[in-house]
Amino acid sequence: MSAHSRLSLNQGTIKHASLAEALHVSVRQGLQSIGLWREPIAEVGLERAAQLLRDSGLRFSSNCRAGFLTSPDNRQAALDSNRVAIEETRVLAEAGAPGSSATLVMVAGGVPEGGTIEDARARFEEGIAELAPEAEAAGVTLALEPLHPMYASDRAVLSTLGQSLDIADRVGSSAVGVVVDAFHVWWDPDVEAQIARAGRDGRIASYQVCDWQTPLPADVLLARHLPGDGVIDFARLTALVNAAGYAGDVEVEVFNADLWAKSYDDAVAEMVQKFDAAVGEHLTEFALA
Amino acid sequence: MSAHSRLSLNQGTIKHASLAEALHVSVRQGLQSIGLWREPIAEVGLERAAQLLRDSGLRFSSNCRAGFLTSPDNRQAALDSNRVAIEETRVLAEAGAPGSSATLVMVAGGVPEGGTIEDARARFEEGIAELAPEAEAAGVTLALEPLHPMYASDRAVLSTLGQSLDIADRVGSSAVGVVVDAFHVWWDPDVEAQIARAGRDGRIASYQVCDWQTPLPADVLLARHLPGDGVIDFARLTALVNAAGYAGDVEVEVFNADLWAKSYDDAVAEMVQKFDAAVGEHLTEFALA
């Protein structure tokens, strides 16, 4: 088996796998890169996780995820959890194969009970401003991920690339980047201009792909599909990301109950095939930075 | 009973009512204005609908809805259906009490099977450009309604106020306006600037209010709630709409299975009360143009 050289499995796609299982199936299916989630890392501890990653020979494309900085309660604990995640990201990027990326995906958090979206957004930005110097010192990128507006109330008050780049500008740190996730941005009338802007500013930390299909499932968190199974125009989005100069790993991050019910090998093999058909042909080959 | 002088019942809030029932319950509950849907109008015919409206003494705040101009198939039929809706709107605005508004709500339509969102958006804009001179001649405003991006694939490729105002600028007709619907725009990081822009350009044709709450129901079309029952900051949005100079009717348009299960009187009485508490206090009194 081989897979596209820039394809990375985001572990969320095989959510029930342990870290070791996710690494093994990735190698077996010919992948060169993986994006990890914090919970499976925590299960074995950071040192062991780094060893397993090193042994796999895979690149590390991102650490999912930190952030959740919109609540006025337990502020210090939220910031400290992000500090732990920054350190994890530094260690794992060093343990991964050459071309690994010290990218920490940041999900904003929702509107707190009784609060307003304006206040929540301001609080998130304050948190990023506080963490950015520490991320910079660690060589880690805080990759702000705008989520689809249907998650704005309960998960992420960060809703567009433009908003994320505005925050990056105001914070003014080179450690602040953005995630371009097709599922979250495909509908945005401003997506072309904002991907170009993100490229000009050197802020594209990750390109993630999964597809949008309706009707939405009862749990909209599980609304994602493998590339090619929905309505997103990956040829266009990928061309925009290419033109913006992004040449790193491309993660497939699909939360889907049917996919999770398959064997890890079957799920990853299907991902490899559908990625090639829908996205891979539009990408340039992976080039070491 | 009396209700806020600017409150208008959008008939979708009591979906199962006939036109006559909707008019009667509105009068009974002390409302001064109503927004109608095309299907109940069609049930009795336009002439009879106009007579019933005239007899009610209510203002007419909008005709819901036309548009659906994104498919390359049956193009002429889609345009002709919009022409019928323009004429309906003209007639009903004349039949309504002084202060009625000849506003036709335009929902874009989704991404056609096998098509792209870019093409669908271009096709919608072409349709608006074709219809605008006819609307202008009839004294009717084509009120472009951006819908929440979770409907972008299957219902409306028009997703933001900014995008709608860009179309209005390019079409260049005074007959093109926009709907500011709280449910659809509350998450938009650019909402403040775009409401102000819409006001400056004289394009706010309608302000609609309903609330956002999670978790979303299995059918996301029924995700709407009465104002105050969710997370939307109506004080802020209403202040923005006031500041933009909008002084017309404010429609409550809620699609909600629980509300539809109530008696029309109970549903409208609850709407009147919740509107007052969440929105009414932030509005100025209705002033005839």
From TrEMBL, chains A, B:
**Is Nucleotide-binding one of the keywords?**
no
Alphabetical keyword list: Carbohydrate metabolism
Can you give the residue ranges of the Xylose isomerase-like TIM barrel domain?
34-267
Does Translocase appear among the keywords? no
Q: Which Pfam families match?
A: AP_endonuc_2
Q: Which SUPFAM superfamilies match?
A: Xylose isomerase-like
The protein in question is named TIM barrel protein
The organism of origin for this protein: Gulosibacter chungangensis
User: What are the leading ranks of the lineage?
Assistant: Bacteria, Bacillati, Actinomycetota, Actinomycetes, Micrococcales
